[in-house]
Amino acid sequence: MSETVVIKRVVDEAYDTKSFFFDLDADVRPGQFLMVWIPGCDEIPMSVSSVDGREKSITVKAIGPATRRLHEFEAGDRLGIRGPFGNGFDLSSGNVLIVGGGVGTAAVMPAVAATGADVIIAARSDRDVILKEVAERHSKNVWIATDDGSMGFHGNAVQLMREKVSQHDYDCVIACGPEVMLYFTYKACEELGLDCQLSLERYMKCGAGVCGCCVMDDQRICRDGPVFRREQIARLSDFGRGRRDACGRFVSFR
Ligand SMILES: Cc1cc2nc3c(=O)[nH]c(=O)nc-3n(C[C@H](O)[C@H](O)[C@H](O)COP(=O)(O)OP(=O)(O)OC[C@H]3O[C@@H](n4cnc5c(N)ncnc54)[C@H](O)[C@@H]3O)c2cc1C
Question: Which CATH class is domain 2-85?
């Protein structure tokens, strides 16, 4: 599906992150994403960060040309939308712990809203924590971790996740965030014998499984993912190792 939407409102989430709300007549499952066309600039993948009937939002961290341009958009401006794409999270996995790191927190928020499950929001510092109030509207237990200790637990998402898993009885961890966080989440879940569903990020052009830009082994991240379970991730040889850039060149994380 492809349509033009009008931005209804823009909300500042942090010094570098804004949410854009618009009406979109589409059923979106938690964990799915949209291809967002920024007129005159680029088309980029963005997770849906909230669903309220027709109203949807995306939450965008300004890091490069397209996301900075999008940050200049205001209520009344138009965006092109294709999607939703991807598989989304399976929310029938029992008692889940949901973990969002950085702007990856946006991608897990619809799962938080749908389940009211316990949530960890991790960020570099208190300035970088996003969507805390949104999570608190849906969940009784919202725990914050910051690398510098300026808010909540002093440490990273995986350290706090290990602590909470030892104190509670979870069946599955759902997570989205930087790949280093997802890699150590995966390792911890493997060690603890805990199921996980991780939302991965790769360079995407079409979003619909055609162009092949986001292929990892035999999986297209856009179409077969972006959410993968532990046993699938075990077979993705580039996971935690590196990614392909816009030209298809392999760029190592290490
Ligand atoms: C499924 C998915 C969901 C995402 N959800 C969010 C979200 O909710 N909020 C958010 O802020 N960001 C999200 N991103 C990342 C976002 O798409 C990039 O930050 C954005 O494309 C950067 O574009 P730029 O021109 O501003 O920066 P650039 O300087 O062009 O790129 C900065 C980084 O973003 C990556 N990037 C650039 N273009 C793309 C592309 N077409 N596909 C994938 N990665 C790209 C680059 O490889 C580079 O690592 C998501 C990415 C994917 C794949």
Answer: mainly beta
